[in-house]
């Protein structure tokens, strides 16, 4: 039996000669073990890596497979094809290594058989010298040794099959090498390190260009993309526009009143499948659906009041609360759908805002910019658009955009610029897929509109007209 790739010595007789068989086996063994692969190790070029290698019993390299590093050009279709082919080559190399070890084992077995055959030759000579005295005893020993040599037959058959398999693998590797060469020529003779550096430079230039984008004007709304279907007809869901790109937490607040439970999800994927990471119980119930999460805190309208509450998710406590002077609440000046949507807290690229209405402004929309830390009103603008005629509203780059309805056929109808204190009537349609919108908020980090669309959580993409600042601009 085999033990650690060597033959156990016990149970084997003294060697005899079989030089004729070895004269046939030696060339075949030499061809398969040493003739098919180069004996020197191939050092990979810069930007390449060794995928696999095989060694003979003396530790000499007989097969080395090198390929480009997997981290380079990982998104390229040709690179994917190249990686698949390299994986196939790697699997073949491992199979060849196994076959080579098996061949080494068989070679040791044959060497042992040679010694036994030499012993047989000695016995034959003894028979010739003194046939009468030793014939009976030697013939019996010869018979025993021939019986012990019978296991060599299946070994030789397996050896022949291994040799054929190695030849087949060699042909497949030759074909794959031709394909890899063609792909390399198709990709060009560029150095992979150089290509990687070029990609990094282009990425830096793109980020620099994005950083020069100033606030833009809303031109188009596309979508929506349905993220999930859950909850009642009314509710709010949001991400933090000031969070890092690695932080993709989602917060979920079902219903527009009589609730204090906020659910948190670590990622958008967890939100889709319903894996809740934390649940918060707010100290006060909320009113409406126009809440936001901003820099790690939740801002919402306290139930049956015109008070805005700032609640920290990190400490689980209220950091600030302040009443909006003269602001209507509890369905005094709601959006067209009702739902205690009198006070709408929102944020954009320029900071935090609150939209509401007052008796002093005849129930028309009032815009106030507030301090996120103290909730103090910094500046206020009075518009001439009736709050009760507004379907929903959102801020982008200091401009308030108001929809004319919360039902099918709704469109962005009115825009008020806080920069110029002027307004205009516009006509930007969007697809109200599920016929009833009870929440519509802009996320400056993702430049998208989050919406609660009749029990569906959806996202609209927005197209902005940008002005690129140059180095000469002040």
From TrEMBL:
Subcellular location: Secreted; Synapse
Keyword Transmembrane in record: yes
Keywords: Coiled coil, Disulfide bond, Glycoprotein, Membrane, Secreted, Signal, Synapse, Transmembrane, Transmembrane helix
Any GO BP: signal transduction
Any coiled-coil regions, as ranges: 75-130
GO cellular component, one term: extracellular space
InterPro entries: Noelin_dom, Olfac-like_dom, Olfactomedin-like_domain
Ranges of residues in domain Olfactomedin-like: 214-466
Primary location: secreted
SS bond list: 215-397
Transmembrane segments: 20-37
PANTHER family with a match to the protein in the record: NOELIN-3 PRECURSOR, OLFACTOMEDIN-RELATED
Protein name, UniProt field: Olfactomedin 3a
Species whose genome carries this gene: Seriola lalandi dorsalis
Native organism taxonomy: Eukaryota, Metazoa, Chordata, Craniata, Vertebrata
């Amino acid at each position: 039996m085999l033990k650690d790739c060597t033959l156990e010595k016990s149970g084997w007789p003294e060697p005899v000669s079989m030089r004729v068989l070895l004269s046939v086996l030696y060339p075949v063994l030499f061809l398969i073990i040493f003739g098919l692969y180069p004996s020197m190790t191939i050092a990979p070029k810069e930007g390449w890596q060794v995928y696999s290698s095989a060694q003979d019993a003396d530790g000499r390299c007989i097969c080395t497979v090198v390929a480009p590093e997997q981290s380079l050009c990982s998104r390229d279709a040709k690179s994917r094809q190249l990686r698949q082919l390299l994986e196939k080559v790697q699997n073949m190399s491992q199979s060849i290594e196994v076959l080579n070890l098996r061949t080494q084992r068989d070679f040791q077995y044959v060497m042992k058989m040679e010694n036994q055959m030499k012993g047989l030759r000695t016995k034959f000579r003894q028979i010739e010298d003194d046939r009468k005295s030793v014939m009976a005893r030697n013939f019996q020993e010869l018979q025993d040794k021939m019986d012990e040599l019978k296991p060599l037959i299946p070994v030789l058959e397996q050896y022949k099959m291994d040799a054929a398999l190695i030849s087949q693998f060699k042909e497949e590797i030759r074909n794959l090498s031709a394909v890899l060469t063609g792909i390399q020529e198709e990709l060009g003779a560029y150095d992979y390190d150089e290509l990687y550096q070029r990609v990094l430079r282009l990425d830096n230039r793109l980020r620099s260009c994005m950083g020069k984008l100033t606030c833009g004007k809303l031109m188009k709304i596309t979508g929506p993309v349905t993220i999930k279907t859950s909850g009642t007809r009314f509710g709010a869901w949001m991400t933090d526009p000031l969070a890092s790109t690695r932080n993709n937490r989602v917060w979920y607040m079902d219903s527009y009143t009589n609730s204090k439970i906020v659910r948190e999800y670590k990622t958008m994927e967890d939100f889709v499948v319903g894996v809740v990471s934390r649940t918060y119980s707010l100290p006060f119930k909320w009113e409406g659906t126009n809440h936001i999460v901003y820099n790690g805190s939740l801002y919402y309208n306290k139930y049956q009041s015109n008070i805005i509450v700032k609640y920290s998710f990190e400490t689980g406590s209220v950091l600030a609360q302040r009443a909006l002077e003269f602001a209507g609440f509890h369905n005094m000046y709601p959006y067209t759908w009702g739902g205690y949507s009198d006070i709408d807290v929102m944020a954009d690229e320029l900071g935090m805002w609150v939209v509401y209405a007052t008796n002093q402004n005849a129930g028309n929309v009032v815009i106030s910019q507030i301090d996120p830390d103290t909730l103090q009103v910094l500046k206020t603008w009075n518009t001439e658009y009736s709050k009760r005629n507004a379907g929903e509203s959102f801020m982008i780059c200091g401009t308030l955009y108001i929809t004319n309805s919360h039902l099918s056929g709704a469109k962005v109808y009115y825009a008020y610029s806080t920069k110029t204190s002027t307004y205009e009537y516009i006509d930007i349609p969007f697809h109200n897929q599920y016929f009833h919108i009870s929440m519509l908020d802009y996320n400056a980090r993702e430049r998208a509109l989050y919406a609660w669309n009749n029990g569906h959580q959806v996202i609209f993409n927005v197209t902005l007209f940008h002005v690129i600042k140059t180095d000469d601009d002040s």
